[in-house]
Amino acid sequence: FIETDLANFSITSLTHAVRMRVRIFLIGSIRLIRTNRIFSTHSRWEPVTGRRKRAAEPDSFKAKLREMQHFFGLEESGDVDPQTVAAMRRARCGLSDVEPFRRTMRWTNRTLTYRISRLGSKLTAAQVRTAFRQAWKLWAQAVPLKFRRQRRSDADIVISFNNKDHEDGSPFDGEGGILAHAFFPGPGIGGDVHFDDEEAWTTTNAKGCNLLAVAVHEFGHALGLPHSSDPGAIMFPAYNFGLHNVLQLKISLDRLPPKTPDKCDPMLSFDAVTGMQQELVFFKDRFIWRVHPSFEQIGITLITSLWPDLPAHIDAAYENTNTNSMLVFKGEAFIAQRHHKYNGIVLHGYPRNISEFGFPSTVKSIDAALYFRETRLIDFFIGGECWRHEKLNKILLTVILPSVYIFL
């Protein structure tokens, strides 16, 4: 069923869309160990006996690095530049970026059983079981399968929390880095899912590794899905614990593949525009254009290459130059990110609800936002109205759209 039923499915959120494209690229993967040194290039994981790794040859290093950069939507320079290092440092799945498997991986039965053989040390048994039950429920909405937990040892899928070397050929690396890995469908270890017990697991939006988000991704591998190169996808190799609430994920059908926006398209529009230090940043789908006064060329790159926690299709953004941060809005949620040399850092306590600005419950999203440094006023545009927020007095006023804003 993987080829016929899942090829066009995607994961979406009630707050924003998250695409999951099932595409197979026969390239390898380059990973970074915790000392931030590239140490392996691998391109194969056999589902029954574990992974077989092969060492990277010096002559192919740059070629493999370019393949990795292509997969992550980075400039294919073949050099270990800051953006490449930032992509490598993200918490990720232990499976290769793309698996060149030889045959179709799928289950033959329509009801799959799973067993939790070893609970972790960070969460209670009830929290773990609830997260896994929710993850399987999401997949049950998308695929013609049923999932049932059992206690017997002959379950199709065995789930466990493990430390370091756990005798499957793929040892964990401690906190950070690789959070989990899974095996494609098959007998024996096939379909099994392993989580690193040393991670800071959580079942909320608090700082840490959200177990539900990781479980949905790894269970996709247990069903036979490879990684996706779409950074907004649930099957993207680097996990996204950002603006969206994973508890609200649902499966829906989406047949349109992601496309790079054409800057020459006369119908091109942008999701949001904001200043960022000396640059002007245009957001469109999962991409950004960066315009700098000192450079003639306008660069386009993936949002996640600069801000790993930001989703695609945002509603609005503005830079608070007084705090050197950027606020990003999507639906009823917003986050604040502190500027960093290469990556934005999400501030503690986010995401938050836009009701904190004083909006009534009828306002579910905003269209645009402007921040004025001198007066610390924030203008929010919603439909044909402009709502002005006085930051110092924390007052929100409804303002009739002034003529100066008619061009918007």
Automatic annotation (TrEMBL):
Residues reported to bind Ca(2+) 4: D271, D315
Hemopexin repeat segments: 261-310, 311-361
PROSITE patterns: HEMOPEXIN (PS00024), HEMOPEXIN_2 (PS51642)
UniProt-listed SUPFAM superfamilies: Hemopexin-like domain, Metalloproteases ('zincins'), catalytic domain, PGBD-like
Cofactor binding summary note: Can bind about 5 Ca(2+) ions per subunit.
Predominant subcellular localization, coarse grouping: secreted
Stretches assigned to the Peptidase metallopeptidase domain: 103-262
GO biological process: collagen catabolic process; extracellular matrix organization; proteolysis
GO molecular function: metalloendopeptidase activity; zinc ion binding
Residues given in the record as Ca(2+) 2 binding sites: D156, G190, D192
Protein name in the entry: Collagenase 3
